[in-house]
């Protein structure tokens, strides 16, 4: 049996990247809802319908676990999904808790960057309210990064120009941690590093989600596959080798983003 990964688009590949590190002998299904991306700019009702349609399809593939590799989808639907399906469902949320822990002592600020819909959700606001006792958290929606990623456009010049414009009203020296609250954003980690400098930690929830997946799959559930990945776009299996290569190329981009640039 395979493990399913679901996202509105290609962003979930950044979570799958971390999962393969800790579970290299599993076989995976990656489902990108590319016909309906981006979720972050749509209504909550509309997005919920897309999510349930996608998970119904994933359930039909006889998966043994599902990772909702999308912060927006997790915040909107994770609890209802768990009530409706009998396999383990693991979500992802902005890594606000470790970010605040990193910054509390020095009273550095935390910047959470995500989609509009994630930042508007009550689940996110409740999380921040519960733990942000010193009011350190600022938020910024960056929908343009989703668009860049979905177009497989990782040109540093365009991305840097966009980020500089969106961050123009922020004092970058105030921040100790940047939370990448959308799974598309780790593809641009280097651009954030170059703007904020070496003193800033840049984190996401991907590693924690991968570890939680491994924890849930006990020894008897671990696979003996080869780390194979079957790709689907909105329920249609991707057979085109050029497109499959483009998806797998994303792992190389993430490898580059692991390197230190200072």
Automatic annotation (TrEMBL):
Q: Does the keyword Cell wall biogenesis/degradation apply?
A: yes
Q: Which GO terms describe its molecular function?
A: glutamate racemase activity; identical protein binding
Glycoprotein in keyword set: no
Q: What Gene Ontology terms for biological process does this UniProt record contain?
A: cell wall organization; peptidoglycan biosynthetic process; regulation of cell shape
Q: What class of enzyme is it?
A: isomerase
Question: What InterPro entries has UniProt attached to this entry?
Answer: Asp/Glu/hydantoin_racemase (IPR015942), Asp/Glu_race (IPR001920), Asp/Glu_racemase_AS_1 (IPR018187), Glu_race (IPR004391)
| Binding-site residues, substrate | 7-8, 39-40, 71-72, 183-184
**Alphabetically ordered keywords of this record:** Cell shape, Cell wall biogenesis/degradation, Isomerase, Peptidoglycan synthesis
Q: In which pathway does it act?
A: Cell wall biogenesis; peptidoglycan biosynthesis
Q: Where is the active site?
A: 70, 182
What is the protein's known function? Provides the (R)-glutamate required for cell wall biosynthesis.
The text of the family note is: Belongs to the aspartate/glutamate racemases family.
Protein's name according to its UniProt entry: Glutamate racemase
Q: Which organism is it from?
A: Bacillus glycinifermentans
> What is the name of the gene encoding this protein?
murI
């Amino acid at each position: 049996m395979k493990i399913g990964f679901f996202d509105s688009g290609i962003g979930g590949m950044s979570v799958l990247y971390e999962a393969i590190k800790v579970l290299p002998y599993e076989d995976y299904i990656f489902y990108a809802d590319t016909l309906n991306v981006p979720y972050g700019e749509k209504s909550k009702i509309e997005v919920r319908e897309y999510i349930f349609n996608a998970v119904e399809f994933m359930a039909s593939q006889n998966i043994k676990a599902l990772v909702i590799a999308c912060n927006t989808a997790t915040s909107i639907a994770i609890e209802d999904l768990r009530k409706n399906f009998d396999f383990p469902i693991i979500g992802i949320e902005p890594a606000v808790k470790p970010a605040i822990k990193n910054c509390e002592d020095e009273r550095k600020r935390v910047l959470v960057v995500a989609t509009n819909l994630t930042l508007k959700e009550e689940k996110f606001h409740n999380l921040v309210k519960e733990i942000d006792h010193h009011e350190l958290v600022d938020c910024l929606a960056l929908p343009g990064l989703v668009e860049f990623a979905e177009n497989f456009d990782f040109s540093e010049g365009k991305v840097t120009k966009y980020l500089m414009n969106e961050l123009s009203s922020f004092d970058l020296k105030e921040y100790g941690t940047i939370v990448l609250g959308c799974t598309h954003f780790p593809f641009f980690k280097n651009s954030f590093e170059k703007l904020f400098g070496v003193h800033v930690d840049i984190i996401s929830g991907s590693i924690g989600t991968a570890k939680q997946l491994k924890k849930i799959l006990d020894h008897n559930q671990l696979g003996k596959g080869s780390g194979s990945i079957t790709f689907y776009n909105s329920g249609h299996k991707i057979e085109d080798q050029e497109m499959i290569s483009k998806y797998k190329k994303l792992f190389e981009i993430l490898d580059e983003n692991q390197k230190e640039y200072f």
